[in-house]
Amino acid sequence: MTHRHVLPNGLVILVVENPVSDIVSARLLTRAGIAYEAPSQAGLFSLMASVLTKGTAALSSIDIAERVESVGASLGTDAAADYSLLSLKTVSADFPAILALASQLWRSPTFPEPEVELERRLMLQGLRSMQEQPFTMAYNSLRKILYGEHPYGRPNLGTVETVQRLNAEDLRQAHTAYFRPDTTVISIAGRIAVSQAVALVESVFSDWQVPPSPPPALIFPPVPQTSARSLVAQDTHQSIIMLGYQSAPVKAPQYAALKLLNTYLGNGLSSRLFVEMREKRGLAYDVSAFYPTRLGLSQFVAYIGTAPPNTQTALDGLKAEIERLCTTLLSEEELQVAKNKILGQYALGKQTNAQMAQLLGWYEILGLGISFDQAFQTAIAEVTPENAKATALESFTTPFIAALGPEAAIGVLQD
What we know:
Blueprint: E1 2-6, E2 12-17, E3 23-30, H1 44-51, H2 61-69, E4 74-79, E5 84-91, H3 95-107, H4 113-129, H5 134-147, H6 160-165, H7 168-178, E6 184-190, H8 194-205, E7 229-233, E8 239-247, H9 255-266, H10 272-280, E9 286-290, E10 298-306, H11 311-327, H12 332-348, H13 353-365, H14 372-382, H15 385-395, E11 400-405, H16 407-410
Parallel strand pairs: 2-6, 7-11
Antiparallel strand pairs: 1-2, 3-5, 3-6, 4-5, 8-10, 8-11, 9-10
């Protein structure tokens, strides 16, 4: 059972007591991530996440590392599309000390200039290495035509040009604006009593004052309304082809049906795309589909890696499989297999304390609430073949195409 408590300063605490193992995992999340970046500061939150644990007024990066490693704990950070987080895991006895340390890092990082410069150089190396990753390049080009100026259309690491301009002062200003008690969620799971967990969070966060001004509003720009193609010529051994559709956000009524269609179409070795495109037709080195959970407009993407001579045939095959979802009712058996798969994977994704803390914190930060855990499973179970077809007809109307491969292979896609 999940317990939810809200401090007077607006900070939300979620606690799941699990006495099975002597471990406590926690997630500190804030409602600010890559979607909140200005175009000129793309990569800002990824850089912030990498430097968040590198120093406070009283602790150097070495001091912080020693405190964590001396008790065998783990501590990490990340920036996602709709949130940023700090994760920690430790034995129960050390949780109070590690939580107190996490509080300092979350509330009062100093972003030391040398650490910022080091991480900025590493990000630039990562961006340059992306130019050697065909799948990543194809996906980035697809996102660009799908989203236009919308922040979901940019790489999480930003661009070489924007990252080169980022500095410590940019990080401090963004931290002041977005890291605040009324945008913070702390999710805790493990061998700890609910009352103890709440008291510990109160002891290190209750004095955190809410700034007088509200956090900056999140305003998504409009996205392209007409389909487009992005063809990238590169001397590769295979063609990467992606078919993408602008799709419903997590709070939309179509969400559960789209998740189910994604599972049916591209999840695993028994999925429709794998069986039809790889096993039966021998067209695919790799083939799948994905539909990420997003607070704003999401994307439904089917992709395939194929031999260059098969480029047009592979694209036609992807289109045919998407169109089939719009014209043909899935059988009850097909739908039930997909339901069993997605619900089984969902259950397996909640086995550990870390997974529970992540999932519940994520739901809270997206504004879904703790009841979404059961509501999602119920919504999946209630999808009918008619629902699935109607959702496909509504969602798969405007295809965006990105392809990367040898010039002679992708040139045939111009028409």
